[in-house]
Design brief:
76% helix; 293 residues; 2 domains; 2 strands
Amino acid sequence: SVGAIAGLSAVVFGFALNAGLPLPLAMVTALLTGTACGMVNAAGIVLAGIPPIIMTLGTLGIYRGLMRVLTGGSWIESIPHNIKALAVTRILNVPLMVWGVGALVILVAILMHKIRWTRNFYAVGDNSEGAYLLGINTRLTRFVAFTLAGLFSGAAAIVFVGQIGFVPMQTGDGQELKAIAAVVLGGVSLMGGTGSVWSAVIGALFLTAVDSMMIFLRIPGSWNNAVAGAVLLLVVVMDYMIRRGAQRRRLAARAAEMLRADDTDDGAGGSKSGGRSGATAGAAGPVGGEVRP
Protein backbone atom coordinates (compact mmCIF):
# COMPACT_ATOMS: atom_id res chain seq x y z
CA SER A 1 0.00 0.00 0.00
CA VAL A 2 2.98 2.35 -0.41
CA GLY A 3 1.31 4.11 -3.34
CA ALA A 4 -1.85 4.79 -1.35
CA ILE A 5 0.21 5.99 1.62
CA ALA A 6 2.10 8.35 -0.68
CA GLY A 7 -1.20 9.61 -2.11
CA LEU A 8 -2.73 10.29 1.31
CA SER A 9 0.49 11.96 2.49
CA ALA A 10 0.45 14.16 -0.62
CA VAL A 11 -3.14 15.22 0.14
CA VAL A 12 -2.23 16.18 3.71
CA PHE A 13 0.86 17.95 2.40
CA GLY A 14 -1.21 19.95 -0.07
CA PHE A 15 -3.77 20.93 2.57
CA ALA A 16 -0.98 22.00 4.93
CA LEU A 17 0.59 24.22 2.28
CA ASN A 18 -2.73 25.80 1.32
CA ALA A 19 -3.46 26.43 5.00
CA GLY A 20 -0.39 28.66 5.14
CA LEU A 21 1.94 26.39 7.08
CA PRO A 22 5.65 27.00 6.48
CA LEU A 23 7.20 24.57 4.00
CA PRO A 24 9.32 22.70 6.60
CA LEU A 25 6.31 22.21 8.88
CA ALA A 26 4.15 21.07 5.96
CA MET A 27 6.85 18.54 5.04
CA VAL A 28 6.78 17.24 8.60
CA THR A 29 3.01 16.72 8.38
CA ALA A 30 3.48 14.63 5.22
CA LEU A 31 6.19 12.54 6.89
CA LEU A 32 4.07 12.04 10.01
CA THR A 33 1.09 10.99 7.88
CA GLY A 34 3.18 8.39 6.08
CA THR A 35 4.65 7.16 9.35
CA ALA A 36 1.21 6.84 10.94
CA CYS A 37 -0.07 4.83 7.98
CA GLY A 38 2.98 2.59 8.17
CA MET A 39 2.39 2.03 11.87
CA VAL A 40 -1.21 1.01 11.17
CA ASN A 41 0.09 -1.62 8.74
CA ALA A 42 2.70 -2.72 11.27
CA ALA A 43 0.15 -3.03 14.06
CA GLY A 44 -2.17 -5.16 11.98
CA ILE A 45 0.57 -7.44 10.71
CA VAL A 46 2.82 -7.78 13.76
CA LEU A 47 0.43 -7.30 16.67
CA ALA A 48 -2.83 -8.66 15.25
CA GLY A 49 -1.18 -11.37 13.15
CA ILE A 50 -2.94 -10.44 9.90
CA PRO A 51 -1.09 -11.74 6.81
CA PRO A 52 0.87 -8.86 5.19
CA ILE A 53 -0.79 -9.22 1.78
CA ILE A 54 -4.27 -9.03 3.34
CA MET A 55 -3.43 -6.13 5.63
CA THR A 56 -1.76 -4.00 2.96
CA LEU A 57 -4.51 -4.63 0.42
CA GLY A 58 -7.09 -3.63 3.00
CA THR A 59 -5.31 -0.45 4.02
CA LEU A 60 -4.73 0.39 0.35
CA GLY A 61 -8.49 0.70 -0.07
CA ILE A 62 -8.86 2.57 3.22
CA TYR A 63 -6.19 5.15 2.39
CA ARG A 64 -7.58 5.64 -1.11
CA GLY A 65 -11.03 6.15 0.38
CA LEU A 66 -9.67 8.72 2.83
CA MET A 67 -8.12 10.61 -0.07
CA ARG A 68 -11.51 10.91 -1.76
CA VAL A 69 -13.27 11.85 1.47
CA LEU A 70 -10.77 14.61 2.25
CA THR A 71 -10.67 16.07 -1.25
CA GLY A 72 -14.22 15.34 -2.37
CA GLY A 73 -12.74 13.77 -5.49
CA SER A 74 -11.14 17.05 -6.58
CA TRP A 75 -7.53 17.93 -7.20
CA ILE A 76 -5.62 20.13 -4.76
CA GLU A 77 -4.40 23.08 -6.74
CA SER A 78 -3.24 26.65 -6.06
CA ILE A 79 -0.38 25.29 -3.98
CA PRO A 80 2.11 28.03 -2.97
CA HIS A 81 5.02 28.44 -5.33
CA ASN A 82 7.61 27.85 -2.62
CA ILE A 83 7.16 24.09 -3.02
CA LYS A 84 8.09 24.36 -6.68
CA ALA A 85 11.37 25.95 -5.66
CA LEU A 86 12.52 22.50 -4.55
CA ALA A 87 12.42 21.34 -8.16
CA VAL A 88 13.49 24.60 -9.83
CA THR A 89 16.39 25.65 -7.59
CA ARG A 90 19.68 24.17 -8.77
CA ILE A 91 23.04 23.59 -7.11
CA LEU A 92 25.88 22.80 -9.52
CA ASN A 93 23.18 22.59 -12.20
CA VAL A 94 21.47 19.77 -10.30
CA PRO A 95 17.94 20.33 -8.90
CA LEU A 96 17.75 20.77 -5.15
CA MET A 97 15.21 17.92 -5.03
CA VAL A 98 17.80 15.52 -6.46
CA TRP A 99 20.34 16.57 -3.85
CA GLY A 100 17.80 15.90 -1.11
CA VAL A 101 16.85 12.46 -2.40
CA GLY A 102 20.51 11.58 -2.92
CA ALA A 103 21.38 12.61 0.63
CA LEU A 104 18.51 10.48 1.98
CA VAL A 105 19.65 7.45 -0.03
CA ILE A 106 23.25 7.81 1.16
CA LEU A 107 22.13 8.22 4.78
CA VAL A 108 19.95 5.10 4.68
CA ALA A 109 22.68 3.09 2.93
CA ILE A 110 25.22 4.06 5.60
CA LEU A 111 22.81 3.21 8.41
CA MET A 112 22.04 -0.17 6.86
CA HIS A 113 25.72 -1.12 6.69
CA LYS A 114 27.31 0.63 9.66
CA ILE A 115 24.77 0.17 12.43
CA ARG A 116 24.57 -3.31 13.85
CA TRP A 117 20.86 -3.21 14.65
CA THR A 118 19.87 -2.56 11.03
CA ARG A 119 21.42 -5.90 10.06
CA ASN A 120 18.47 -7.45 11.87
CA PHE A 121 16.32 -6.59 8.85
CA TYR A 122 18.38 -8.98 6.72
CA ALA A 123 18.38 -11.68 9.38
CA VAL A 124 14.61 -11.55 9.94
CA GLY A 125 13.92 -11.39 6.22
CA ASP A 126 16.14 -14.38 5.51
CA ASN A 127 14.98 -16.63 8.36
CA SER A 128 12.65 -15.21 10.97
CA GLU A 129 12.70 -18.30 13.19
CA GLY A 130 16.48 -18.53 13.04
CA ALA A 131 16.78 -14.84 13.89
CA TYR A 132 14.49 -15.35 16.88
CA LEU A 133 16.65 -18.21 18.14
CA LEU A 134 19.67 -15.91 17.88
CA GLY A 135 17.99 -13.49 20.26
CA ILE A 136 16.73 -10.92 17.74
CA ASN A 137 13.44 -9.24 18.56
CA THR A 138 11.70 -10.21 15.33
CA ARG A 139 8.41 -8.51 16.19
CA LEU A 140 10.08 -5.16 16.82
CA THR A 141 12.17 -5.51 13.66
CA ARG A 142 9.13 -6.17 11.49
CA PHE A 143 7.18 -3.35 13.15
CA VAL A 144 9.99 -0.88 12.44
CA ALA A 145 10.31 -2.13 8.85
CA PHE A 146 6.65 -1.46 8.00
CA THR A 147 6.77 1.88 9.82
CA LEU A 148 9.81 2.98 7.82
CA ALA A 149 8.04 1.97 4.62
CA GLY A 150 5.32 4.45 5.53
CA LEU A 151 7.86 7.16 6.39
CA PHE A 152 9.61 6.83 3.03
CA SER A 153 6.25 6.84 1.26
CA GLY A 154 5.59 10.20 2.89
CA ALA A 155 8.96 11.43 1.63
CA ALA A 156 8.04 10.25 -1.87
CA ALA A 157 4.84 12.32 -1.64
CA ILE A 158 6.88 15.46 -0.95
CA VAL A 159 9.07 14.79 -3.97
CA PHE A 160 6.05 14.14 -6.20
CA VAL A 161 4.19 17.31 -5.19
CA GLY A 162 7.38 19.32 -5.54
CA GLN A 163 7.79 18.10 -9.10
CA ILE A 164 4.31 18.84 -10.44
CA GLY A 165 3.08 21.58 -8.09
CA PHE A 166 -0.38 20.14 -7.37
CA VAL A 167 -2.01 16.98 -6.01
CA PRO A 168 -4.15 14.97 -8.46
CA MET A 169 -6.49 12.26 -7.21
CA GLN A 170 -4.36 9.69 -9.04
CA THR A 171 -1.32 10.41 -6.88
CA GLY A 172 0.43 7.15 -6.08
CA ASP A 173 -2.05 5.09 -8.09
CA GLY A 174 -0.40 1.86 -9.25
CA GLN A 175 2.94 2.71 -7.65
CA GLU A 176 2.81 -0.45 -5.53
CA LEU A 177 3.50 -2.56 -8.61
CA LYS A 178 6.30 -0.28 -9.77
CA ALA A 179 7.88 -0.22 -6.32
CA ILE A 180 7.99 -4.01 -6.17
CA ALA A 181 9.24 -4.28 -9.76
CA ALA A 182 11.99 -1.72 -9.15
CA VAL A 183 13.46 -3.38 -6.07
CA VAL A 184 13.19 -6.90 -7.51
CA LEU A 185 14.80 -5.69 -10.73
CA GLY A 186 17.66 -4.34 -8.61
CA GLY A 187 18.28 -7.74 -7.06
CA VAL A 188 16.25 -7.51 -3.85
CA SER A 189 14.74 -10.92 -3.15
CA LEU A 190 11.01 -11.20 -2.48
CA MET A 191 11.91 -13.98 -0.04
CA GLY A 192 13.90 -11.50 2.05
CA GLY A 193 17.46 -11.41 3.31
CA THR A 194 19.07 -10.32 0.02
CA GLY A 195 19.57 -6.89 -1.49
CA SER A 196 20.80 -3.41 -0.65
CA VAL A 197 19.73 0.21 -0.84
CA TRP A 198 21.93 0.79 -3.89
CA SER A 199 20.51 -2.20 -5.76
CA ALA A 200 16.97 -0.91 -5.14
CA VAL A 201 17.96 2.54 -6.42
CA ILE A 202 19.51 1.03 -9.54
CA GLY A 203 16.31 -0.94 -10.18
CA ALA A 204 14.21 2.20 -9.78
CA LEU A 205 16.45 4.15 -12.16
CA PHE A 206 16.25 1.37 -14.73
CA LEU A 207 12.46 1.27 -14.54
CA THR A 208 12.36 5.07 -14.87
CA ALA A 209 14.58 4.80 -17.94
CA VAL A 210 12.13 2.29 -19.40
CA ASP A 211 9.26 4.75 -18.84
CA SER A 212 11.26 7.52 -20.52
CA MET A 213 12.02 5.24 -23.45
CA MET A 214 8.32 4.48 -23.83
CA ILE A 215 7.62 8.22 -23.99
CA PHE A 216 10.38 8.67 -26.56
CA LEU A 217 8.90 5.86 -28.66
CA ARG A 218 5.44 7.46 -28.28
CA ILE A 219 3.99 4.43 -26.57
CA PRO A 220 0.78 5.36 -24.68
CA GLY A 221 1.23 5.88 -20.96
CA SER A 222 -1.52 3.34 -20.29
CA TRP A 223 1.07 0.66 -21.08
CA ASN A 224 3.34 1.67 -18.19
CA ASN A 225 1.78 -0.66 -15.64
CA ALA A 226 1.68 -3.49 -18.17
CA VAL A 227 5.40 -3.09 -18.82
CA ALA A 228 6.15 -2.90 -15.10
CA GLY A 229 4.12 -6.06 -14.51
CA ALA A 230 5.90 -7.88 -17.34
CA VAL A 231 9.30 -6.83 -15.99
CA LEU A 232 8.31 -7.96 -12.49
CA LEU A 233 7.09 -11.34 -13.74
CA LEU A 234 10.23 -11.88 -15.83
CA VAL A 235 12.59 -10.99 -12.99
CA VAL A 236 10.71 -13.10 -10.44
CA VAL A 237 10.77 -16.14 -12.74
CA MET A 238 14.48 -15.66 -13.41
CA ASP A 239 15.17 -15.22 -9.68
CA TYR A 240 13.24 -18.41 -8.93
CA MET A 241 15.14 -20.37 -11.57
CA ILE A 242 18.51 -19.08 -10.35
CA ARG A 243 17.70 -19.88 -6.73
CA ARG A 244 16.38 -23.31 -7.64
CA GLY A 245 19.51 -24.07 -9.65
CA ALA A 246 21.73 -22.90 -6.79
CA GLN A 247 19.77 -25.06 -4.34
CA ARG A 248 20.17 -28.10 -6.58
CA ARG A 249 23.91 -27.49 -6.84
CA ARG A 250 24.19 -27.21 -3.07
CA LEU A 251 22.25 -30.45 -2.59
CA ALA A 252 24.39 -32.22 -5.20
CA ALA A 253 27.59 -30.99 -3.56
CA ARG A 254 26.34 -32.09 -0.14
CA ALA A 255 25.40 -35.54 -1.49
CA ALA A 256 28.83 -35.89 -3.10
CA GLU A 257 30.52 -34.99 0.19
CA MET A 258 28.45 -37.59 2.03
CA LEU A 259 29.36 -40.25 -0.54
CA ARG A 260 33.05 -39.41 -0.26
CA ALA A 261 32.80 -39.57 3.52
CA ASP A 262 31.14 -43.01 3.32
CA ASP A 263 33.81 -44.27 0.91
CA THR A 264 36.54 -43.01 3.21
CA ASP A 265 34.96 -44.72 6.22
CA ASP A 266 34.57 -47.98 4.27
CA GLY A 267 38.17 -47.84 3.09
CA ALA A 268 39.46 -47.14 6.55
CA GLY A 269 37.39 -49.99 7.96
CA GLY A 270 38.68 -52.40 5.31
CA SER A 271 42.29 -51.45 5.97
CA LYS A 272 41.88 -51.97 9.69
CA SER A 273 40.20 -55.33 9.11
CA GLY A 274 42.93 -56.45 6.71
CA GLY A 275 45.62 -55.33 9.13
CA ARG A 276 44.06 -57.27 11.95
CA SER A 277 43.75 -60.41 9.78
CA GLY A 278 47.38 -60.19 8.73
CA ALA A 279 48.53 -59.72 12.28
CA THR A 280 46.48 -62.70 13.40
CA ALA A 281 47.90 -64.90 10.67
CA GLY A 282 51.43 -63.78 11.51
CA ALA A 283 50.90 -64.57 15.14
CA ALA A 284 49.37 -67.96 14.39
CA GLY A 285 52.09 -68.94 11.92
CA PRO A 286 54.89 -69.59 14.40
CA VAL A 287 52.56 -71.41 16.74
CA GLY A 288 50.46 -73.70 14.63
CA GLY A 289 52.18 -73.63 11.28
CA GLU A 290 55.51 -74.50 9.77
CA VAL A 291 58.23 -72.01 10.32
CA ARG A 292 60.14 -71.27 7.16
CA PRO A 293 63.53 -69.67 7.03
